[in-house]
Amino acid sequence: MTDDDDAALAWAGDEPVAEALEAPPVAEASEAQGEALEAPIAPTKTQIPAPLLITYGILAGLYLIYTIGWVITITRSTTTLPTLLGEIMFQLGEFLAIASPAVWFAAVVILTRRSKPIIRLLLLLAGLVATIPWPFLLGV
């Protein structure tokens, strides 16, 4: 290359292009490669297959429907108790009934992070049975 060509590729204040284009010395290149090979490899995160994600989404939707069923059931309830302690305990039970589907889903997802997907699916299906809003389904 001529100096005119080098001048066309550089801006004022930049180092000369010829110096920037030179390859590093062989010793430096081999040291850099050696460091790269010795660097610890970060663990790769495995991706969840698409059908499994869709299944989780459907189950999450069912748990949301269960929560809505419990809210509707409890808002229709007209039960009052004569004592303050009884009323507080009854309202605590109502709150726990509303929260139970969401708590079950979150607990299974968090606690089975490293488990096989089939175990997570079985526990989520068991939760659908355990948290079903029977008063809503029976019309009570």
Decide which structural class fits the backbone: mainly alpha
Give the strand tally.
0
Write down the domain tally: 2
Helix content class: over 70%
Number of helices: 7
Listing every helix as H and every strand as E from the N terminus to the C terminus, the arrangement reads HHHHHHH
Nearest-integer average pLDDT: 82
**Cα distance, first to last residue?**
90 Å
Proportion of beta-strand residues: under 5%
Low-pLDDT segments, ≥5 res: none
Global outline: elongated
Q: Please outline the major beta sheet.
A: none
Can you tell me about this structure?
By secondary structure, this protein is mainly alpha-helical. It has two domains: 3-38, no CATH class; 50-138, no CATH class. The protein has helices at 3-8, 17-21, 26-38, 50-76, 84-111, 117-130, 134-138. The relative contact order is 0.09. The model has no long low-confidence stretch (mean pLDDT 82).
